[in-house]
Amino acid sequence: MLVPRDAVPELKVETLSSGAFDLKEDKAEFATLVVFYRGLHCPICATYLKELGRLTGEFAEKGVKTIAISSDDEDRARQMAEKVAQPDLRFGYGLSLSVARDWGLFISTSRGTTSIGIEEPALFSEPGVFLVKADGTLYFSSVQTMPFVRPHFSEMIGALEFVQKNDYPARGEYTGTV
After folding, report:
1. How far is residue 139's CA from residue 3's CA, in Å, rounded to a whole number?
2. What share of the chain is helix, strand, coil (3-state, %, to 5)?
3. CA 94 to CA 155: how far, in whole Å?
4. Residues of the chain with pLDDT under 50
5. Rounded distance, CA 163 to CA 112, Å?
6. What per-residue confidence (pLDDT) applies to 132?
7. Of 16, 24, 124, 158, which is most buried by a Cβ count within 10 Å?
8. Backbone angle region of 117, left / alpha / beta, with phi > 0 → left and psi within -120 to 50 → alpha
């Protein structure tokens, strides 16, 4: 289980437009917002990523870099990027499912063709949103078993204002006996 204030697992993927992505080398001023999405087959992901792309500039103003990552191959990732049509949003692809599991993501099996007529991969990860501080430690995470009901990016931007102004610590770090 990933624990706030602890180092996150290694994360390296290729991107569509900016070469290799290595979270340890990303060098965000405050943090990197890593958004794992299900893949091209997910219409909810496309809508969600449009919102992330639309707000990427506002995150940047707060010192936060953004990236959307899936286990899709380059072709499917490119199709998703074209569908989302947000040029400032980085798209990573080829996430190994073992790395997805290291990050605590749930893995699903294919149910065939989706409502939008796209075949699901045999295996893929479910969504997860992680705010990783510049020092490589986890600040915030939300992991889901379903594509529905995800954290709102606009609320995160508002929360970042409070967090940065008040030097608010990551919460949920206690792992002792309860």
Report:
1. 9
2. 30, 25, 45
3. 29
4. none
5. 42
6. 98
7. 124
8. left
Output b/e per residue, 68-95; b: 16+ Cβ within 10 A.
bbbbbeeebbbebbebbebeebbbbbbb
Q: Cβ atoms within 10 A of the Cβ of 173, count? A: 12
What's the confidence (pLDDT) of residue 126? 98
**Is-contact 67 130, C-beta < 8 A?**
no
User: What are the chain's domains?
Assistant: 30-164 (3.40.30.10)
Rounded CA separation 130/105 (Å): 11
Tokens 């940065």 -> residue? 164
Do 62 and 30 meet the contact criterion of CB atoms below 8 Å apart?
yes
Q: CA 95 to CA 126: how far, in whole Å?
A: 12
Cβ neighbours of residue 153 under 8 Å, at least 6 residues apart? 51, 52, 55, 59
Give pLDDT, residue 9: 98
Q: Give the H/E segment covering residue 98.
A: helix 97-102
The verdict on pTM exceeding 0.85 is: yes
